[in-house]
Amino acid sequence: MTISRRGLAGSTLAMAAILGSWRSAAAQAAAWPDRPVRVILPFPPGGGTDVSARLIAQHLQTRFGQPFTVENRSGGAGVMGTEQLARSAPDGYTLAMTASGPMSILPQLQSVPYDPIRSFAHVALPSITPLLLVTPANSPTRTLPELLARLRREPGRLTACNIGVGSPSHLAAEMFARAFNVQYEQLPHRGSAPALTDTVAGTCDFLFDSTASSIPLVRQGQLRALGVTALEQVPAMPEIPIIAGQGAPGFLATTWSCLLAPAGTPAPIVERINAEVRAFTATPAMQERLRDQGSIPLDLAPEGFRAYLEREIATWGAVIRAANIRLT
Question: What is the pLDDT of residues 85-95, one digit of tens each?
Fold first, then answer.
């Protein structure tokens, strides 16, 4: 095959352009950060994602020698702050700590001004938190088989609280109904606290809620845990069986918080932040903190985080379509 001088010159120019772009990105990453970095938190202060964002921001500030300032920009169940990140310059100076709702669930229930996959660089997913299936402490139901027996004896009679329409709590209960072919009434609440209060009081027969918020009430004897929505035993709760091992293979439902950058952020910057977050998550103090709240630490590179997100979107999308869930 003969290559013309013009073709050879074009190929050389293209290679030079690619090499120049790579060198520019590498130089930009080497200089980063040379000024403060903003971390958008699309939720109000005080929640679990807020706490995680501030811990990670403090670690990054210590490691990189520049301020990493967390700014709460709540609204739209996390959508507004997540959109703000998507519209930010992809220079490494704006990040966001968002959560599973705005990334894997809400985009399938309503129109959102970003794409969870294409609008972001997927920086880090430090951990996931499964849900607990809990009942009131004075419930006659003491095990998952006993709950299933009651549901089959009284189809449609029992009630399941959830923390809101379209929440992981709601979707996990829909998954449960289909996995075991049972029926019950769902009672949506406006958040975890009122749903837990009603379950403790016996207004609801059972509830799926994050281990982080429900473990303390289980430990205090106000709730009884029948199962956990993980694929392996959770170290903080070795006595609580996994639902996947009780007749529903593969039953997995989690919540999580993640660190994002705008799409187009130089890969070397993304990789530097990812490495620091993974190192921080691996410290004994963070491992103990995560285990104590029932979370499962992860050690994922950016591409592993993106693959996990794609699986979450597919899982929740299947539940939403099967149950015909809509936001009213």
Answer: 999 999 999 99
